[in-house]
Structures are given as structure tokens and as C-alpha cells.
Hints:
The complex is a heterodimer of chains A (189) and B (191).
Chain A: H1 10-15, H2 19-30, E1 35-38, H3 42-54, E2 59-62, H4 66-78, E3 83-88, H5 89-106, E4 111-115, H6 128-141, E5 144-147, H7 154-168, E6 172-176, H8 178-181
Parallel strand pairs in A: 1-2, 1-3, 3-4, 4-6, 5-6
Helix pairs in contact in A: 2-3, 2-7, 4-5, 5-6
Chain B: H1 3-12, E1 19-21, H2 25-33, E2 39-41, H3 49-59, E3 65-70, H4 71-75, H5 79-87, E4 92-98, E5 101-102, E6 108-109, H6 118-124, E7 129-133, H7 136-148, E8 153-158, H8 172-182
Parallel strand pairs in B: 1-2, 1-3, 3-4, 4-8, 7-8
Antiparallel strand pairs in B: 5-6
Amino acid sequence: MSQTDDHSGSDAQVHAVPRWATLVADALWAGGCREVVYVPDNPLSSILTALAANHPEVRATLATREEEAVGIAAGLYLGGAKPALLMQSSGLGNTLNAVGSLLVAFQIPVVMIVSMRGDPGEWNSAQVPMGRAVAPVLDALGVQHLSIDREDEAGEVVVSLAQLAFGTRLPVACLLPRRLTVPVGGGRS
Amino acid sequence: MTRFDAIDLTRRTLTDEPVVVSLGHPAYELFAAGDRTLNFYTWGSMGLTSSIALGLALARPDRRVVALDGDGSLLMNLGSLATIAACAPPNLFLLVLDNGQYGTTGGQPTATAGDADLEAAARAMGVRQTATVRDAQQLELALDASRQSPGPWVVVAKVDESAPTVKPPLDCVDIKNRFMAALNLEADSRP
């Protein structure tokens, strides 16, 4: 589609939900998630917008910090829900002991949707160290993870991870690379 | 009032309430006061007791949910008070066992040994039902009040350290499975 068609709708463009976010929201729904706990960033806001628009039965709970969000998600699971946890990769760094000593140790499944910083497309050097650490620390904790590398695989990746999580009682992580979530040349976080 | 006194008194008032308890001495003494399958003993994730209880209260509005936290633990996760106030689950009762020290790790003082005031913190974050209690009679009154009017409740119990002599089961997965079974939930909930 030509960019030149959309000059009149710049506000609408900013707020339009990208297709990948709609697919992730639909897949969370299909995977059984009716509870979402989050600490926001820009790409994740698109998923929350898609959930609110297309799956209003899903409750979204805002946490002050990602480690706290792990605790809330664990409690939701103990109460019978299938929780998803939305956070930025920087926030994953805030969760690590909770992921290990609560989710992994107790076999509490949570689908973590991790919006990446510090990967190709990044502009902020402070985001790079934790961004590079995401996959190694998830591996070290024994948390399986997949990245959505193409928009058209978004639904399949999230549904398969949700099945792995809730079927086998394990936390899992779905990584959203910046090449997916931020238009080339974009600088928003 | 020792921490064990406060836990034992609270434990005696329980019927079908699930309890989430902070790791270390609070968990040991809840077990000593009488094991229940509806006790969720944490063994790690220090600071998250109130958050786990919040999630449980949101998922199960039909049940009163009790959280037994420590002052050192809650100080690690003060943002939880803001989230509890914002979500405002009427069925959440958070009891902070405030002995002014990190009892499990050797008794190093916490900030509440100085001027830090966790009830004031809860109120400042928007929790309206709060109390600070200093003896068993005041705790009983607060427990009664929390059954009469909706929460979320945050009650800070000023307690003396006590010496736990037993520990709860160590098998985390078993703790979770028996807890969820007692809530009539199937832990293996396939999509």
C-alpha cells in the first residue's frame, strides 16, 4: 500500500493496530487466556488495544513492576485462570528470581509476551545488554521461547506456546523483535 | 504478641479461606499453627506474597483470600500496595507480620525498625481499610472488622520475633497441586 494515500489520517495511523498485534491478541484468546497482567510499552499497547476491541472479556491488570506482575499472574493461575504476562525485555530482567523460584519451581504456567529492546533496530545503547541477555537467561531458567519473526506466523507461535504452557504446566516466552513491532526507522519504545 | 501468636490467632479464625504465606519464618509458623491444604507456602519469590494473593483474589471473587506477609518482604514490593488499591478486590485480607527485622536471615533490622510505616504506605497508595495492631485483642478486632466490611484490607501487626521449630513440606509442586485441588481446581488444565 502506498504511504501517500494516508496523509490525511496521521492520527489514525499512530493509533492503528498493526496486524501482528491483532493476531497475537486473537491467539491469546484462542490459547485460553482471559487474564493479562502487564507493564506497558508501545508495541504491547497495540496488543492491549486489540484485546479490548476484539476480546473485551479479557481482563487486563496493570502492575507497577514486572516481578510483581509474575506474582499476580501466578495467583491468577492458582485461582483457575490461564494468565498471560506482557512486558518489555528490560522488564524481564526484573522478573528473573520470580520466574525461577515461583513459576518454574511450582510449575505454574504463564505465557510471557516480551517486547524486545536492544535487538536490531535499537537506537538506545542502554537497552542492548539486557536485550542480548534475554535468550540466554530464559535458557538458563529452562523457559522455552520462540520469536515471531514474520507477521503471518504470529498466531501459530502464540497458540503453540500457550498449548505448551498450559498443557505441561510450564512458563513460556514469546519474543516480539523490533523488526516486527517497530517500522523501520522508527524510534518509539 | 509474637509473630507465632498473631499467625496462630489468625489461623484459628479460618474456615475455607485460601492463605498465601511469605517464605521463611511466616511459612514455618503457619505450618506450626496447623497445616491446611489451602495454605500456599512459598519457598522463594521474596516480596510477592501480596501479589500472588491479589491474583488469587481477582480469579476467585467467591472466596476471601488471606495473605500473610512480612515487613521485609512487603518493603521489597511496595508497588503492590498501589496495585491492590487500584484493583480493589473486596475479598483480599493482607496481614503484615511486622517484627522490624529480617527474622529468617538472622534478625537484621528493616526500615520499619525506624520510621517506615507500612499502614501509612498502604493508605497513601489508596487502600482505605487499614489498621495497625499491637496485641491479640486488637488483632481479633481487626480480623472481625475485615469480615464485616469489604476490603481490600491491609492490617499491620506489630509483633516480636519467635523461633520456628518446624518447616512445611518442601515439594513445591505438591504444595501447588494440593492447594488447587482444595480449591476444586484441576491443576493440569489443558487448553
